[in-house]
Amino acid sequence: MVRSLLVAVLLAVSPSVLAGPGEGAAAPATAPATPAFTPLPTEAFARLPFVENASLSPDGAYMAGLFGLKGEQHIVMVPTIGDRNKSVVIGVPDKTEIAWIRWVNDDNIIVGLYALQPVETDNWYVSRMIGINRTTGKITKLLWDLNGQNGADLLWTPSDASNEILVAAQNSIYTGAEFWPAVYRVDVTTGRKRKLIAGRTDVMDWGADHLGRVRYGIGYRDSTTQATMLYRSTGEGAFRSIERVSLRKEQELTIPFLFIPGNDNGYVIKAAPDGRSVVAEVDLSTGKDVRTIHAADGAEVERAIVSFDGTKLLGVKTTDRARPIHWIDPVMAAHQAKLNAASPASKVRIESFSRDLGKLLVRFSTPENPGLLFFFDAASGDLSQLAAANEAIGSKRLSRSKFIQYQARDGLEIEGVLTMPRGRATKNLPFIVMPHGGPWGHDELTYDYWAQFLAERGYAVLQPNFRGSTGYGDKFLKAGQGQLGFAMQDDVSDGVRWAVAEGIADPKRVCIVGASYGGYAAMWGIAKDPDQYRCAVSINGVSNLRREVNDFGGNLRERLYRDQWQKMTPDFAAVSPINAIVRIKTPLLLIHGKKDVTVDHGQSSRMYSAMKEAGKAVEFVSIPLADHYFTREADRLMLLTSIETFCGVTIHRTDQHLSSVRKSDYRAA
């Protein structure tokens, strides 16, 4: 019943979304000429997603998330079935960003907030929580009377419909007894709190089991970068030290994500003898392995998916491209198999599930379409479409994307996502390389509104997963150490050379575009390889590495984080774009949101001033209300319009220093 109903619904809105290779009408004997098409307007791509970070209430009757309403994101709780007028809508507080949203019970959610705020002579990241009641819409500030920096370390939520949660929070910014976070039991409907465990010197993190008993603490000293695991068998009694590691040496503590009732064993994600990460059962009191619970064939385990009550491992997220979610629970595995069979050409992702696993939020999408969101009731077999992820695009199939591989100049295999513009020629195209942010991240073969927008404007777009990217194992990740600004950047340039050698890219019409770390790579790209690019666009980018990586917002792990960055490059100043302006030949567009709390707006404003002073071609679009992720529709429209205009002017302009570039000059070494 699931298959027949789903196919009927999806075919009604989008035959092309379901059509896989070889499916649909037979191909004509002679391929027709590329049909003309009308490009979608910029406003369609700037449209906010229907919902992000969506999750079901424990009973499955409601979902909560960040909904795009009238051009802005709001925290919303809405019925999955029935009267949508019963929705609760809360605006996101000004100058804050949403870190997470969690259901406590069927009637209440808690929301983690963070902001960059002035503290004495510096800017610090400050975190807090609010509770929101579904029936009344009442907002309750949780632990806002405390005076510490971090007040939103959620340890535990109940599974018995009660209102009290466990939170660790600081009560002072000055080193002393109140600086070290205590553990509080907090009522999310009233804000009343009760201290369970007092702060302990050097312990900044606490962890609880499924019963809400605090079972471990993590100590850390930045002077030595040594971390210590403190543990106790039950929720009472003294803690004892069971493990010490050096984080500077990249050693890791054995931290449980699930405790097995009745003994000292727990589930952890750890490295197996072959170096891959697996789920293992460990005797926490001794640190000895008991057994391997799950190891993905040829892939790494990235995170665990546990039941609502925290007692059962349901599945794991892995680096397996074909099947990233491995469901261990047979009920969830059966749900996934039915939904996959209903739409074999789509990516079918179960985004959330109810307490009894009988109700699901499911997204069907492809790299060419942002997808459709459905509510599935397993008991009845009903599958109800909630919305298109982007109603302005609907079910249209946009430009084709695929994985490609190329060799870096030192022989390392690099993978990337290539998006070819629909309705255009396939050779000698204007070309944009778009390195991802992080740099500890990676681009997947999923819908990307930036890449699709640029492809709709006729550009071929390459998103390279350069060395140091996640998702390819520990060896590939560590290959980035010492190579920020060097081989990591060469991997991006070598992707351009590959595209030119393949005949895809016109070497005279290449632009580099990126955000955050990708913005850094865009600026550094035109400094390191000034003759390769026609233009560059940096969005919320980092121009001065030394200034950025030395500012951790008052974080206690400042030395550790500085050491981690210093492992990435031997000399911050030598690979900072603001120190290499003299080498830049091509026009640069800087775009930065003034409410960005991840990368300071000054990173772009200072780069703009320095470029202007040096007589370089530069434009600066400062967007007053934009944050790091452009969560307002007006800001996204400004972003995309600025990119389109700038690239449209610069990438097609004749320039002497590029006019003599030959295609052979771009072939990979």
Automatic annotation (TrEMBL):
GO terms for biological process: proteolysis. Residues 1-19 form the signal peptide. Residues 449-646 form the Peptidase S9 prolyl oligopeptidase catalytic domain. This is S9 family peptidase. GO terms for molecular function: serine-type endopeptidase activity. Pfam families: Peptidase_S9. SUPFAM superfamilies: alpha/beta-Hydrolases (SSF53474), DPP6 N-terminal domain-like (SSF82171). It comes from Sphingopyxis witflariensis. InterPro entries: AB_hydrolase_fold, Peptidase_S9_cat. Keywords: Hydrolase, Signal.
